[in-house]
Amino acid sequence: GDIVAVFGMDCSSGDTLTDGVKLAMTSIRVPEPVMSLALTPTSAEQFPTFMKALQRFQKEDPTFRVATNSNTGEIIASGMGELHLEVYIERIRREYKVTCEVGKPKVNYREALTSRAEFNYLHKRQSGGAGQFGKVVGWIEPLPEDSPVTFVFENKLVGTAVPPEFHSAIEKGFVEAANSGSLIGAPVYGVRVVLTDGASHAVDSSETAFRIAAVQAFRQAYANASPIILEPVMKVDVTVPSEYQGATMGDINRRKGLILDSGAVGDDTVVTAHVPLNNMFGYSTALRSATQGKGEFTMEYSHHAAVLREAQAALVGELKR
């Protein structure tokens, strides 16, 4: 039960310190981030200091993640909510004297398929030199909701229609395609790919040809598998004085929230609800305004759920624009 402080150690959150005894400790459960911001230092000279700050924060806090968007080159910081990321932006400014330009918050959407769809795709290209030839046949289908993995590839090829040296290239192609769904470019979760047949050419077949065939086959089948967009849903606990209970519940309903429970704790009311993260932006300000600064809330990731049909159409339309 003792709490101690130690100086000068190079360690990260979650590390176990011992006196030499070898122990295997259960690791802490780190939830997936639910919100992302694009961060850019205002001047190029500050970039090394900026990256140093992000690396230190990642060691301190396993729920804070940093990645680079391969398409845009942006630095993307991800965390558990609006306030979480705001704190780190403020710390970069105060502790490292680096000011950042902050991009619009991005919600970590996912995509999923809801039905089985067949694929039968031939990639064939002839140009001056060596051509490209690769054919894959099979189907994709959704995994069970309680599946511990998000992607499964099953190779049910019989015979040598596709030589074994190309099998790994086909799997890589399907993995690559599943990393970016065709609705809004979000990762596709909960998909099983089953490869049953194919064809090759003695001269023109190559790993590249089969990888491209797999990517295009996935996209062909995915469009026919009734794809949907999933959004993160947060478990929100709101504590307000009892006279504001009605207004608070009305606001949660307006944000498309599902109220799970409400009860009295002393003179306060605690409301528990599931609310889509996309509808929670600016909630801290709205709650303070509505309750004269007496309301407070906590929020944690609960699960991903399908967005409403009109919301999906709006997201897809926004991407096309």
TrEMBL record:
Ranges annotated as spanning the membrane: none
Domain of life: Eukaryota
Residue ranges occupied by any Elongation factor EFG domain in the UniProt entry: 228-315
Keyword Glycoprotein: no
GO CC annotations, alphabetized: mitochondrion
Pfam families (alphabetical): EFG_C (PF00679), EFG_III (PF14492), EFG_IV (PF03764)
GO biological process, one term: mitochondrial translational elongation
GO terms, molecular function: GTP binding; GTPase activity; translation elongation factor activity
SUPFAM superfamilies reported for this sequence: EF-G C-terminal domain-like, Ribosomal protein S5 domain 2-like
SMART domains, alphabetized: EFG_C, EFG_IV
Alphabetic keyword roster: Elongation factor, GTP-binding, Nucleotide-binding, Protein biosynthesis
UniProt feature coiled coil, ranges: none
Domain Translation elongation factor EFG/EF2 span(s) in chain numbering: 106-226
Stored InterPro entries: EFG_II, EFG_III, EFG_III/V, EFG_IV, EFG_V-like, Ribosomal_Su5_D2-typ_SF, Ribsml_uS5_D2-typ_fold_subgr, Transl_elong_EFG/EF2_IV
Protein name: Elongation factor G
